[in-house]
Amino acid sequence: MNPILEYMTGMSALSDQIVAMDMLTSAKSGVRNYAMAVTECATPEVKAVLAKQLEEAIDLHHSIADYVAERGFYYPHDINRQIQLDLQNIDTALNIPY
Predict the structure, then answer these.
(1) Tens-of-pLDDT digits for all 98 residues of the chain?
(2) Would 2 be classed as within a structural domain?
(3) 43 burial level (CB within 10 Å; 0-12, 13-18, 19+)
(4) Per the domain annotation, does 5 fall within a domain?
(5) DSSP state of 21
(6) Which residues, at least 6 apart from 58, have a Cβ–Cβ distance to it below 8 Å?
(7) 20, 71 in Cβ contact below 8 A?
(8) What is the per-residue DSSP string for 29-59?
(9) Contacts of 27 (CB under 8 A, 6+ apart)
(10) Assigned domain for 8 exists
(11) Does some domain include residue 70?
(12) Residue numbers of the domain that contains 52
């Protein structure tokens, strides 16, 4: 986004949140994909490689989840607070000038 527009709309922080949450969603998808691949592989060697990659994907997801939680972008243990944040983000998105 254009820096001037970021300043005028206050979207700089929200842009960081969007990128971080997109990374979290992608990491979660990677975990899911590796888990499915582990259950469908044909040989023990391939299964071992995929299981190791699954563990690494889980670690990455955990790191990203900690990052977004520490910055107040995500509240995995407080559903009410997360709902309020989601509603606030919806209002912000609806009020972006276009």
Answers:
(1) 556 655 555 556 568 888 999 999 999 999 999 999 999 999 999 999 999 999 999 999 999 999 999 999 999 999 999 999 999 988 988 887 76
(2) no
(3) exposed
(4) no
(5) H
(6) 31
(7) yes
(8) HHHHHHHHHHHH-SSHHHHHHHHHHHHHHHH
(9) 57, 60, 61, 64
(10) no
(11) yes
(12) 13-94
User: How many other β-carbons are positioned within 10 Å of the β-carbon of residue 37?
Assistant: 16
**Is residue 50 a contact partner of residue 34, using CB atoms and an 8 Å limit?**
yes
Query: What amino acid occupies position 68?
Result: V
State how many domains the chain has. Answer: 1
CA–CA distance, 51 with 34 (Å, rounded to integer): 8
List the structure tokens of 20. Answer: 């971080």
Q: How far apart are CA 32 and CA 9, in angstroms?
A: 36
- Residue 41 maps to which CATH number? 1.20.58
Handedness of CA 30, 32, 38, 42 (dihedral sign): negative
- Tokens in use for 32? 């899911």
